[in-house]
């Protein structure tokens, strides 16, 4: 592609994004109401149901976890500055939603921005993505590294342990590499979380609080990590070296289009339109379906359906020679 056609292509997708990246205060406020309202109401109902039978509360906890995923998407949009026009309002609402989702706003937002700038880049891995080795790297790795990589990529570990651990425990700690702003935000988030947990525990009892909060957070974390995993780990995904890395191509062909049923699409805040989100991260989540439907640029992107998505859990290594992601079974069979 020559420079003129590249320029026209860039101008084309920029003009598309600009049509949809304007948040509407009425839509955003309504999304807050229909996400936070049911979540808090469900908490009140679950507390009462727990007095009768903890087992009867499990379906309600599952429903609450769905609303928590939706609240996290609002948090995510605020971090991109796409939920409100006001930067201050995005920060306030995003920080509040982050407390509910056990996620410090500044640390997560900064690392997520880096993720958008490096997704699919084999020379800049590890910034907010799932640990992925190339086939050659795995073959040349020590046995200990291979063992830990296979453990990490095991779906039971990655989804059932790694995701919840990251949200509930690892997000509570700072690192030397963090900025002062990120560290102070983690401290403040932890203090507010502890204060709220203490107050709610005083009202309903600490046992009841933990019996509700932990399962709800666990189920939301597992669902969220699965969505995150599938966004850049699927059959047709494209990874490349830095010399060939292109923002538009990595958005469209390095990020998935997860075609979910309508109810799951609602709870996940349309994050399945991840190819569009990576192309235009400032597009509010409620504008993503419309952007997809109205622009032929996105119609050639092959969707991943709900049941077919589980096949992606088998994929483990990037085969640079054949430009595809493969499973350990394919590695063994050659």
Give the count of structural domains.
1
The profile of the biggest β sheet is: 3 strands, mixed
Q: Return the structural class.
A: mainly alpha
Principal-axis shape equals globular
- How far from one another are the termini? 35 Å
The overall pLDDT average reads: 93
Work out the helix count. 15
Which ranges are low-confidence, i.e. pLDDT below 50, for 5 or more consecutive residues? 1-9
Question: In what range is the share of β-strand residues?
Answer: under 5%
Element pattern in H and E: HHHHHEHHHHHHEHHHEEEH
List the quaternary state of the chains. Answer: single chain
How many whole angstroms does the radius of gyration measure?
21 Å
Total count of strands = 5
| Sheet with the most strands: spatial strand order | 1-4-5
Helix share of residues?
A: 55-70%
Tell me what the structure shows.
With 334 residues, the protein is mainly alpha-helical. It is 63% helix and 4% strand. It has one domain. The protein has helices at 3-20, 25-52, 58-80, 87-100, 105-118, 135-140, 143-153, 155-168, 180-204, 206-230, 247-253, 262-267, 274-279, 288-294, 328-333, and strands at residues 133-134, 258-259, 304-305, 315-319, 324-327. Strands 1-4-5 form a three-stranded mixed beta sheet. Strands 2-3 form a two-stranded parallel sheet. Strand 4 and strand 5 form a beta hairpin. Helix 3 (58-80) runs antiparallel to helix 4 (87-100) and helix 3 (58-80) packs across helix 5. The relative contact order is 0.13. Mean pLDDT is 93; it is low at 1-9.
């Amino acid at each position: 592609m020559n420079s003129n056609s590249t320029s026209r292509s860039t101008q084309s997708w920029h003009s598309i994004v600009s049509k949809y990246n304007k948040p509407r205060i009425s839509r955003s406020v309504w999304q807050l109401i229909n996400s936070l309202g049911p979540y808090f109401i469900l908490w009140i109902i679950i507390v009462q149901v727990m007095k009768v039978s903890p087992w009867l509360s499990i379906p309600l906890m599952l429903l609450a976890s769905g609303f928590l995923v939706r609240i996290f998407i609002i948090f995510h949009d605020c971090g991109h500055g796409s939920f409100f026009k006001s930067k201050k309002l995005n920060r306030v609402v995003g920080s509040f939603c982050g407390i509910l989702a056990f996620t410090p706003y500044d640390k997560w937002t900064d690392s997520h921005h880096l993720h958008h700038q490096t997704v699919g880049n084999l020379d800049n891995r590890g910034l907010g993505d799932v640990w992925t080795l190339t086939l050659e790297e795995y073959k040349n790795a020590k046995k200990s590294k291979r063992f830990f990589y296979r453990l990490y990529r095991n779906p039971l570990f990655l989804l059932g342990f790694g995701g919840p651990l990251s949200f509930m425990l690892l997000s509570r700690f700072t690192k030397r590499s963090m900025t002062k702003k990120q560290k102070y935000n983690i401290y403040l988030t932890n203090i507010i979380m502890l204060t709220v947990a203490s107050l709610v525990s005083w009202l309903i009892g600490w046992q009841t609080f933990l019996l509700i909060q932990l399962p709800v957070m666990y189920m939301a974390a597992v669902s969220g990590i699965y969505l995150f995993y599938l966004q850049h780990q699927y059959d047709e995904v494209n990874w490349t070296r830095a010399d060939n890395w292109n923002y538009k191509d990595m958005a469209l062909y390095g990020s998935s289009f997860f075609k979910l049923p309508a109810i799951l699409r609602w709870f996940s805040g349309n994050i399945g339109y991840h190819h569009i989100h990576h192309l235009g991260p400032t597009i509010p989540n409620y504008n993503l379906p419309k952007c997809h439907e109205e622009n032929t640029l996105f119609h050639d992107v092959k969707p991943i359906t709900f049941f077919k998505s589980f096949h992606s859990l088998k994929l483990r290594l990037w085969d640079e020679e054949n430009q595809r992601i493969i499973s350990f079974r394919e590695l063994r069979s050659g």
